[in-house]
Write a structure and sequence with these properties.
It is a single chain. By secondary structure, this protein is α+β, with helices and mostly antiparallel strands. Helix 11 runs parallel beside helix 14 and helix 15 packs antiparallel against helix 16.
């Protein structure tokens, strides 16, 4: 199915209102553009729009880099996103400056700074290719064979798409755990330049303590620009005009690319997450933060290098802590169990009771997945470049594939204290998660402590030397088989373990995908089309209202104002992370203290929605999403909007900053302010 025309959109008004599935299953409101719930929107809000409106909503919305969202906000390719979405790219180009910390304003077009490697993607076409992905797949096939056939079909579909539209980038999108497949095609803008970024401490005000918290006082925004052929892109047909902000209770729509949710997973699948994945990942983040903070505290230059990495890890630490807390909450898991039982009962009532065997099969499969989790994640190179090179050399020795030889050359093997410390931590955690006598521990550690083993490996191996590498590659398999370099010897033992684990992971993933698709098909049979799929870091829209909520025995206001930001600064005596940059303090008497800074609404969002535009029914930009409150973390697994909220920057707060602190007159003119 191609991008929906007006006739198709109007035909979808027969969709039932999705209240049943939302309330009973907690699947949320991350709607795809090819399946907009038009009847629901009209019934809930009295909202209707034509084809042009929907196309503008889609084409003005962007996927930003590898993990965020954004939008066009002027006819000349101006892009609005979060500061925290752009700051990594800014750090790469700032050189001796510190634009991340001190902010940046391009006074003229020629002052805009290119951000190499950064792209934004605009979704220009959608096509249902479920039948093509499932071609020649039958029920008699094993899960592995069926998945291999689907993979062949997917490769063919992508190759045909590239040949048909070579100027576009195609992506196959798996929805409803594989019950539906969409071919999305993107226009990619690869010349992105920095226009303006505020001070880090204004965008990140409150730091880690205020992260995932509301009330909030952060102006987390930045502006970039898309260029085509060296000139600002012409986006006059599809951009969001700047608005004054929303009213309390008003309908707002969020567009963006939510990264991933797990609402369609069964209770058994969530128990795997709770008992295996989350404890391991949380420990990884905690330990990495401790390592990186120690390096940062010793050296100001190292702090500048590691700053954005630490900030991202801090965000992940709080996120995983909150999500894991939901999974460990008996009341929350009881909610999931009730939702699952309601689904199963409706299946029985509809004469599909035999389908309930799917849940028992998943329970057994999850026991296998739990057992594999530690070997899969620890019997590896641990990210150490020397071992990554050794792995590529062994691959070349086995296959003679020149691509493997080039991969070995491309691995940068210079000594790096941070990388080495992180690998030591990997080994320390491996000793905790793997059983005593595990062959991986024997191969890498022997009878030494992790730090001593890593030091010996790096001192004795010659594989980092370009001449030694080329000597091995020229000698081919005989030379590699005879090589006793400690890095080669270690990976000779580890590589078969990693290959076995990867094969087992593929087999489990194929079976899990097959069972998940069966559950999704049962979902359609029981509930119809009034359900939204889990997030996939592809374009979605969500509806909601601007609303405060009760919290901590009091009330959270629907919006915060600059009075609160400066009061919080004073209340904490200006001590980090509640300090404000000097230009902000100097502008205090000029700033309108009653101007809104942030607000909350009930749109459905998650990671990847950072930088998403919030618009009203007139397609005016009325907000910029940058966070969720702490209560919304459980929405990863079950959607709710009792006190769960998305946190957005108010457009008046952005304008106030541009005018009173940064004197960004050119930018203000461009957005019509």
């Amino acid at each position: 199915m191609r991008s929906p025309g007006l006739g198709l959109l109007l035909s979808l008004v027969s969709f039932a209102a999705p209240a049943l599935a939302q309330d009973e299953l907690g699947l949320g409101k991350m709607w795809t553009f090819e399946r907009p719930p038009l009847a629901y929107l009209e019934r809930e809000y009295g909202f209707k729009a034509d084809e042009r409106w929907w196309n503008t909503l889609r084409l003005a919305s962007l996927r930003f880099g590898r993990g965020c969202s954004a939008s066009f906000v002027s006819p000349q390719g101006l892009i609005l996103t979060n500061h925290h979405c752009a700051r990594g790219a800014v750090a790469e180009v700032q050189g001796d400056n510190d634009w991340v910390r001190d902010g940046f304003v391009a006074d003229e077009l020629d002052d805009e700074v290119r951000l190499p490697g950064l792209t934004v993607q605009q979704l220009v076409d959608m096509q249902d290719v479920t039948a093509e992905v499932e071609r020649d797949v039958d029920d008699a096939m094993s899960a592995d064979d069926a998945e291999a056939r689907r993979e062949q079909n997917r490769e063919r579909i992508l190759a045909q798409a590239r040949a048909r539209n070579p100027e576009r980038t195609p992506q196959l999108v798996k929805l409803f755990q594989g019950a539906v497949w969409q071919l999305y095609e993107y226009r990619v803008f690869d010349d992105i330049r920095l226009v303006m970024a505020p001070h880090l401490q204004a965008a990140h005000f409150g730091g880690d303590p205020d992260n995932f918290v509301y009330p909030r006082y952060a102006v987390d925004f930045s502006f970039c620009r898309a260029y085509v052929d060296g000139k600002p892109a012409d986006t006059s047909a599809n951009f969001f005009r700047w608005g004054d902000g929303p009213e309390v209770g008003e309908l707002v729509l969020l567009t963006g690319n939510p990264g991933g949710t797990s609402r369609l997973l069964t209770k058994a699948q969530l128990e795997y997450q709770r008992d295996a994945r989350y404890p391991r990942v949380r420990e990884l983040i905690d330990n990495r933060l401790a390592v990186l903070r120690e390096f940062s505290e010793r050296d100001p230059e190292m702090e500048k290098r590691l700053r954005t990495v630490i900030l991202n890890l801090e965000n992940g630490q709080k996120l995983y802590r909150g999500e894991h807390g939901a999974l460990r909450d008996p009341n929350f898991m009881a909610r999931k169990e009730r939702a699952e039982e309601a689904f199963q009962q409706r299946a029985r009532d509809s004469g599909r009771g035999e389908a309930l065997a799917i849940w028992r099969e998943l329970e057994k499969l999850m026991r296998d997945k739990v057992a594999l989790d530690a070997p899969l994640n620890f019997q590896s190179t641990g990210g150490l470049p020397l071992l990554l090179r050794a792995e590529a050399v062994l691959q070349f020795g086995e296959t003679g594939d020149e691509a493997a030889a080039q991969k070995a050359r491309d691995v940068v093997c210079r000594r790096d204290a941070v990388q080495e410390a992180l690998f030591v931590d990997h080994l320390e955690r491996a000793r905790k998660w793997l059983p005593a006598g595990d062959p991986y521990l024997t191969a890498i550690l022997g009878d030494r402590e992790p730090a001593a083993a890593v030091a010996a490996l790096l001192e004795k191996s010659r594989l980092a030397e370009p001449d030694r590498l080329e000597e091995l590659l020229r000698g081919g398999r005989p030379a590699i088989d005879e090589c006793e370099d400690p890095a080669i010897a270690a990976m000779r033992a580890v590589r078969p373990l990693a290959q076995r684990n990867a094969a087992r992971e593929r087999s489990i993933a194929a079976a899990e995908a097959q069972l998940g698709a069966r559950i999704a098909r049962l979902l359609f049979a029981v509930y119809g089309n009034d359900v939204s799929p889990d997030a996939t870091f592809t374009l979605r829209f969500s509806d909601g209202r601007v609303a405060g909520y009760p919290y901590n025995g009091s009330l959270a206001p629907w919006r915060t104002v600059f009075h609160g930001m400066f009061a919080r600064n004073v209340e904490f005596d200006g001590v980090h992370p509640f300090d404000l940059p000097e230009p902000w303090l100097l502008a205090r008497d000029r700033i309108d203290m009653q101007a809104p800074v942030d607000f909350v609404c009930t749109v459905d969002s998650t990671g990847g929605n950072s930088g998403s535009p919030v618009v009203n029914s007139k397609l005016e930009l009325v907000g910029l999403l940058f966070d969720g409150n702490i209560e919304s973390m459980a929405n990863e697994f079950l959607y709710g909007e009792r006190v769960e909220r998305s946190v957005c920057v108010h457009p008046q707060g952005i304008v106030e900053a541009l005018r009173k602190v940064y004197e960004a007159k050119r930018l203000l003119r461009e957005i019509g302010r």
